[in-house]
Amino acid sequence: MSYAAPLPQGAPQALVVEDNPVMRVLLSSMLMHRGFSVTEDSRAETALDHLRQGNFDLVMLDIMLFQMSGIELCHLIREDLGLVDLPVIACTSHADPVSVAHMRLAGFNDILPKPVDGEALDKVLREIGALH
């Protein structure tokens, strides 16, 4: 399922890939509140299509997606699509040190533990330069 919520032209573009509809809406709302135009997707395959067609400033990925893991998807974003400079943030309930190290090796810029709170999101967005 895909959904795009546009904001005024020039707003930073975010792609939220999350198979849980409640979490997907929550993450999207948090980003829209911070000035992002958000495209939502629940599937890795169609998320890759969005990335091939769009010009995104940020991607937020669930780690436990249905068809493939967020780690696999991040690897495809970096290696197959060549989007090495695109900030990709993991959203996960598995934020133990070993899992975090594995996610960083896969190419994630940062990790947000679930449930995601606004302060943690703001901190990550500031660190990657997406929030001033």
Descriptive report:
The structure is a single chain. With 132 residues, the protein is α/β, with parallel strands linked by helices. It has a single domain, classed as Response regulator (Rossmann fold, 3-Layer(aba) Sandwich), CATH 3.40.50. The protein contains five helices and six strands; from the N terminus they run E-E-H-E-H-E-H-E-H-E-H. The chain has a six-stranded mixed beta sheet, with helices on both faces. The longest helix has 13 residues, at 21-33. It is globular and about 35 Å long. The N and C termini lie far apart (31 Å). The relative contact order is 0.16.
Summarize the structure in short.
By secondary structure, this protein is of the alpha/beta class.
Write the layout of secondary structure elements.
Layout lengths: L1 E4 L7 E5 L3 H13 L3 E5 L2 H10 L4 E5 L7 H10 L8 E5 L4 H10 L3 E4 L4 H10 L5
Features:
6 strands, alpha/beta, 6-stranded mixed sheet
Number of domains: 1
Highest-level CATH class: Alpha Beta
Q: Any idea what the radius of gyration is?
A: 13 Å
- Find the structural class using helix and strand composition: alpha/beta
Task: Provide the helix percentage.
Answer: 40-55%
CATH topology, which one? Answer: Rossmann fold
**What is the CATH superfamily?**
Response regulator
